[in-house]
Amino acid sequence: NIINASKPFFEVDVQMIPPYVSLSPSLDEIQQCINKSAQAVLSCYKKIVDWGYLSLPKEKRASHTFFNRITKDIELVKVALLLTGCIQGIRNTVAEYLDSFKQYDWLWKADKDAAYKEFFKTNPSLEAYEAKLAHFGSIEHNIGKVSSIHIIGALSLNTKHLKTHLREDCHKWTLKYSENLHSRAKQELESITEYTRVTMGKLSRKVEDLDSLGFMMQVLKEVREKECSIDMDIDPIMDMYRMLECHLPSGFMEKEE
Hints:
Order of helices and strands: EEHHHHHHHHEEHH
Radius of gyration: 36 Å
């Protein structure tokens, strides 16, 4: 039966209906459905004549139905009362389960732009970015570990849609903190790429006279001086791209990068 069912009787979606996590259908709607079903089943017996009174005239049989017998059976009355109140007994357990998702409510309640502005004001290092992106990755991992089906009494709570929604919100936070870092890495990469292109253009010029030789010597001098710091310029860029590749999905960055 529904009260002591070994398997859940109702499948219910756990959904994000901002600003709360709630059930669809709600517990009140489920209880109303159970009550109406119980009433409908019991009402059927009002039209079934108790076989002990079949010999009576038709007009007298109407007052002797199975409904009268059922309503006098104390065990059946107890079951009917338990059935119509079966959802009340699990309300607190369901509420506690839904409250467990409050740890993620900042994903949709907090302002991403405002949070990033406060973070950016601290002049964050690459390590600070790494810590933030790793935190979002950890949150997304924990969301993935939430069971897709959770049984409470007669209810089977399906969290698949909620988990998808939470992961999408977490991904938006990751992108918010990655966009500016990506823009910075790309800008610095393009700066080095442009320097390399211009320098290679200068080195490809023909040496035809003393002026062109002097020009070439000056370019080579600049290259030697730049060589000392080029690794210091490239390493941070490589670190940024490694970080972005680690925390962002494939396809986020252009192939040229």
